[in-house]
Amino acid sequence: MMKKAISLLVVAALALAGVPGGAEVFGPNTVWGTVPSGLEGTANAVLMDASGKTLSMVPVVDGKFAFRDIAPGDYVVGLYTASGQQIARACPLALASGSELEAVFTCGPLPAAVAPVAKGGISTTAWILMGAAAAGITTAVVIATNDDEGVASPIR
Predict the structure, then answer these.
(1) SS3 of 151, please?
(2) Is the pTM of this model over 0.90?
(3) Taking a C-beta distance cutoff of 8 angstroms, is the pair 63, 25 a contact?
């Protein structure tokens, strides 16, 4: 039993000796990548299908990420800040069964304007405008009542 364990360790050590330094083996059906320099503040990598639907999200650790055990198909990877802003998008990927692919970010810059995703509800801009309108109405009422000679309330 001991000889068998030592033999397995020797075989494993020899197999790993053939892997170049720094190289990682992710296994089949994996999309992986490294964050480009200048984007070190990236918090998450998001795997999307060809239509842009989010399938999975993983944290970026030490500038690297990996999506493991995914089905063969066409994918895109986006890099996002902690606040959810997309800061980079990888070139399209076609993952074959049993393969692993590296997501690369050399297909051009992120478009200047990304269309907002409809989530329902009132937008931030609408809330700001409503708040400004409410403040303006309140100010107008206060100004109009300050010049009155009559009593506006029992407290006054």
Answers:
(1) coil
(2) no
(3) no
